[in-house]
Amino acid sequence: xxxxxxxxxxxxxxxxxxxxxxxxxxxxxxxxxxxxxxxxxxxxxxxxxxxxxxxxxxxxxxxxxxxxxxxxxxxxxxxxxxxxxxxxxxxxxxxxxxxxxxxxxxxxxxxxxxxxxxxxxxxxxxxxxxxxxxxxxxxxxxxxxxxxxxxxxxxxxxxxxxxxxxxxxxxxxxxxxxxxxxxxxxxxxxxxxxxxxxxxxxxxxxxxxxxxxxxxxxxxxxxxxxxxxxxxxxxxxxxxxxxxxxxxxxxxxxxxxxxxxxxxxxxxxxxxxxxxxxxxxxxxxxxxxxxxxxxxx
Length: 297
Prior knowledge:
This protein is of the alpha/beta class. It is built from six helices and 15 strands. The protein has helices at about 40-50, 80-90, 95-110, 125-135, 155-170, 270-280, and strands spanning about 1-10, 15-25, 30-35, 55-60, 65-70, 140-145, 175, 190-195, 200-205, 225, 230, 235-240, 255, 265-270, 285-295. A six-stranded mixed beta sheet has the order 5-6-7-3-8-9, with helices on both faces. It starts with a strand and ends with a strand. Keywords: ATP-binding, Nucleotide-binding, Transport. GO terms for molecular function: ATP binding. InterPro entries: AAA+_ATPase, ABC_transporter-like_ATP-bd, ABC_Transporter_VariousFunc, P-loop_NTPase. It comes from Streptomyces roseoverticillatus.
């Protein structure tokens, strides 16, 4: 699935919400979308799901898609079981399989007793379970989740986490937005940040391997040279990344992964301020545990 030069605006003369987006989403990938309120996250998800058409550019290779919206229309005139069965049929299931799948997903979310309850009579939490279950009916090639965890109890959030992992393992593309920065941490393949009408793509972090920001020789940059070679103090910064973050690019020095996900960054003394500024200005910012100095041999 590919987005090429995609843009979206509302109205012929309206401002561009998103513009010039280029993105490829391979099968079996998990993408997290983040950004400030009003940045265009939901617009991007609606474009991916085919709910909205791009105002510019094109989207190709979209597979069968399931979409869980931010707001579920719970006033539809049907029961929870009938609604899920209908969605199962739309996703290509036979009648018997759709009925069976509807009941199985309701039970998996602890809502099996509500299969015969009209949607308009469900609590907000149970309505959200139905909204999520409809997205998991069948085997879509793309699953789009817009804050699908919001309103679910802790057990149901865990069920959805597990279901997402199952779908990705089975080859489904999953794209999601969630307020919890730690949601599915360690499983995300790519994190996308929506900002200023564009998207910025960062690879997801690996907990057992961090890419060093530069060669070891960068440690000696801007150090006074002596007959024995560069010589200056070094600064050791121990920092803790926010959930789902990666090491910011263009950092000086060398990085080493410590226990509990912390990173030890060693830089030449004159570069310490630049490194700290980069970590603290990251979005979200890193937590600085300690800054110490040691002589550079």
